[in-house]
Amino acid sequence: MLTGKGGEIMPRLGGFVLIALFAVCIALSGCNKPAAEIEITLDVDECADVLLETIAFQDILTAVSDEMATTLYQISEQDAVKQKVYVSSGATAEEIAVFEAADAVAAKRIEKAVLQRVAEQQASFKDYLPAELPKLNDPFILVRDKYVILCISDDNEKVKTKLDRLFN
To answer: What is the pTM of this model?
Structure first.
């Protein structure tokens, strides 16, 4: 018997189904992590190498040792878990630096060091090669979670496109 007097069972059944669906929705929504909690991973070497191979640089960029990278950027070894840095011969200001920080707080310190490095390069190239200043005045800098990426080139849009692909 699906209906009693005046169809009382059907409305109760519909209410029960609605409550059950609501409970399932709440339970399933708890399975998803908020975007802020999803851990981002990036292969530092691959990222730097992809930028080196796909961005048109005027100069030949050379990898520097981890020790040289931390010295150039004045970064604590405790802050940088991994890094890959390519520098130009000095004929241009072009540079690639990809850092994996110990955590998001260390990434902020690395970002500050990257900005300081760019400021020092601006001062250095101001009289030496002023034609390089447009690159230094508009460097591509990305901080995402515990990663800090600097790319000084003529093509920030292409850098952004390449990084979007690496992060997704």
So the answer is: 0.78
